[in-house]
Specification:
The complex is a heterodimer of chains A (305) and B (353). Chain A is an all-alpha fold. Helix content of chain A is 70%, strand content 0%. Chain A has eleven helices and no strands. The radius of gyration of chain A is 19 Å and the shape is globular. Helices cover 75% and strands 0% of the residues of chain B. Chain B contains 14 helices and no strands. The longest helix of chain B has 30 residues. Classes of the chains: A mainly alpha (305), B mainly alpha (353). The interface between A and B is large, with 50 and 51 residues.
Chain lengths: 305, 353
């Protein structure tokens, strides 16, 4: 019995990790973007482009690692579009995000059809293999964390830690956070607000690309229409639930993923829809509870500078 | 009083955005080896080529009229209602439940009752988002996105479980009795009298914002909340009302789909009408008649998509690309303005006025 619960918990842990990775990466992207003061509702569309880009890259080169490069590049380009529209042209950030989602929803299907001649899904491509880290995998109990895992597990942890470090331990992070709260003051202090914002929005696109590629060439080996299925919006919720903070974003993603993993592993007697609703209700409750005290960037979505 | 001439710049920008979107999507088609001319000719033919395709175009524009009009109610009040999707699901669901519960009762009573219940459900959801916005200062976009998923999943739970039609393999409710459905304008098409409802709501929207006190207040809050507050407008009530009306009009999109096309509530029946409605309203410049025109355009795109796909060998989702580009271009008048300017400068350089 004890043995069973142990397997169950190890299973749970890994499944939670797998489900949390794409949400967490995109959520960190959302955090970086929104900390610069730009709202990003296009996370969903950028992830979708990333998912497609990953498969396309793997298909063309036969090398899934280059697939990731493609994904990051293509989703980063979507980030650039959002950045140019919002920063240079002062387009409504919300409308731009909605437009990017619609555009990506159409473009990925059109391109999939163009490359594979079918609507709805791509052909099978090479996927990123799992890795076992020699030495570390032999550690008792903890060894499982280093055995047959996707490299994305370590990548995500590294990115979260790096984002946290940059945010709170470097001048760049300090400036970025200042821009999100008081853009004029930052500009007056000599910070190039535009350059920081461009970098932040493009980085968020690139992280969405990584997240999307995880869905298509790590978790799966093909692109399927709308395969992101709302994870971009869930990432947005995780960013808010996590308090616009990279570590908070990752932890929130883990909480959301844990709820889903529980449903899958424990076959709970709760209707699927309610488990799926959990992240949104939780975020809503946190927002309502925090209310005026919710600690988002103060100048989020405003472009008066 | 605005004259037609005052609307011209807006119409010009909208038109330029459409042209730009068509040009860019033609470029994409050329890049992937498709013939854009063939594609757009087939699309036009598929949307307007026969009485049936025209009816299909009209019928496909109906939900977009409602979601577009819905968005404009909030936008006039300075609010961004991205929650149309959730509101149309909850509204359609409430209407379906009422209609199914009152089977056998006279249609003259049930139909208005069902429609009003749905509008009330969508309106309450919208109004609640407005309340959270004013009282807790939480941005309406975030709250509305959360409610989109909650509403969609809640209705999904019911039609997969307690309200699942007996023996049905797909998650859907029992069929709604024929007497309660919208009447077909043309037999063997999906064009129903819901179209008239859309036009009536558009005209009503126009007069609401032009002639009524509440409509005026909503616009005042949208344009300058501080000034509105000083002149005695109740910001809380007005915000809730703008979002509530927005929600109830969005609900009509779902109600007319269920009572005009599917004849039952089907799980996840909306392909994002709530989001496309935002594009429709932005392109229509939040003017009710602009929205009707834009809804017709988007309806035509959706209706001609299949023909285009067959003729040009391209995915029918190409129309989504066009729609996505249209919304980006129209929301960015600076791009079109830049192009107009460049053209003028070149013409001046050639000595033409």
């Amino acid at each position: 019995m004890e043995n069973l619960s142990h397997i169950l918990s190890a299973d749970m842990l890994f499944m939670t990790l797998r489900l949390a990775i794409p949400i967490g990466l995109a959520a960190i992207g959302g955090t970086i973007c929104e900390r610069s003061g730009i709202v990003n509702l296009g996370l969903e569309g950028m992830m979708l482009m990333g998912a497609f880009g990953g498969v396309l890259g793997s298909h063309i080169t036969g090398n899934p690692w280059l697939g990731i490069v493609f994904a990051v590049f293509i989703a980063g380009a979507m980030g650039l579009i959002h950045a140019v529209l919002c920063i240079h042209y002062r387009t409504s950030q919300t409308v731009s995000g909605v437009g990017i989602n619609i555009l990506a929803g159409g473009l990925t299907v059109v391109l999939t059809r163009a490359v594979w001649q079918v609507d709805g899904r791509s052909g099978a491509v090479e996927r990123i293999p799992t890795v076992t880290i020699p030495g570390l995998s032999d550690i008792p109990a903890l060894g499982a964390l280093f055995t047959g895992q996707s490299p994305y597990v370590y990548l995500t942890v590294a990115i979260a830690v790096a984002a946290w470090f940059v945010f709170y331990k470097t001048k760049v992070g300090l400036r970025l956070r200042a821009i999100g709260d008081h853009p004029q003051a930052a500009a007056a202090a000599g910070v190039n607000v535009k350059r920081y914002r461009y970098a932040a929005v493009i980085t968020s696109g690139m992280l969405c690309g990584l997240a999307g590629a995880y869905l298509s060439i790590v978790h799966s080996n093909m692109f399927i229409n709308d395969m992101v299925a709302g994870r971009g919006f869930m990432a947005l919720a995780a960013n808010i639930f996590g308090g616009w903070n990279p570590i908070g974003s990752i932890l929130a993603s883990i909480v959301f993923a844990f709820a889903q993993a529980m449903r899958i592993t424990l076959a709970l007697d709760i209707p699927d829809q309610f488990i799926q609703m959990f992240p949104y209700i939780l975020t809503l409750l946190v927002l309502i509870a925090a209310g005026r005290k919710a600690r988002g960037p103060e100048a989020l979505g405003r472009m008066e500078d | 009083m605005k004259r037609i001439a005052d609307y011209l710049p807006g119409i010009l920008y909208a038109f330029a955005a459409i042209v730009l979107a068509i040009l860019v999507s033609s470029g994409i088609m050329l890049l992937i080896g498709n013939d854009p001319l063939l594609a757009f000719t087939a699309l036009f033919d598929g949307a307007f080529g026969s009485v049936n395709s025209l009816a299909n175009t009209l019928s496909m524009s109906i939900p977009l009229m409602f979601t577009g009009l819905a968005f404009s109610y909030a936008m006039k009040g300075g609010l961004f209602n991205i929650g149309g999707e959730g509101q149309l699901y909850i509204g359609a669901f409430a209407s379906t439940v009422v209609a199914l519960a009152l089977q056998g009762a006279p249609a003259v009573i049930v139909m208005p009752l069902a429609i009003l219940s749905g509008m009330l459900a969508g309106g309450l959801l919208g109004g609640f988002i407005g309340l959270i916005k004013v009282k807790l200062r939480v941005h309406e976009v975030i709250v509305a996105i959360m409610f989109n998923y909650i509403a969609m999943l809640l209705t999904s739970y019911f039609v997969n479980g307690p309200l699942l039609a007996e023996g049905s393999m797909t998650p859907q409710t029992e069929r709604i009795p024929d007497a309660f459905l919208f009447t077909r304008i043309l037999p063997r098409t999906q064009l129903t009298t819901a179209l008239y409802l859309g036009l009536v709501v558009a005209v009503a929207t126009y007069f609401f914002f032009k002639k009524t006190r509440i409509g005026y207040n909503i616009r005042a809050v949208g344009e300058n909340p501080t000034a509105a507050k000083v002149s005695g407008v109740n910001i809380t009530a007005t915000t809730m009302l703008a979002m509530g009306l927005s929600g109830s009009v969005a609900a009509l999109a779902g109600i007319t789909e269920v009572f005009g096309k599917h004849d039952r509530f089907i799980d996840g029946f909306s392909p994002g009408f709530g989001f496309t409605g935002i594009a429709v309203a932005v392109l229509g410049n939040n003017n009710p008649f602009g929205i009707i025109a834009t809804a017709l355009l988007f309806g035509a795109l959706n209706s001609g998509a299949l023909r285009m796909s067959h003729a040009a060998g391209i995915s029918s989702s190409m129309v989504m690309v066009v729609q996505g580009l249209v919304i980006l271009f129209v929301a960015t008048p600076a791009i079109t303005r830049g192009i107009f300017k460049a053209v003028r400068v070149r013409r001046l350089a050639h000595g033409k006025p």
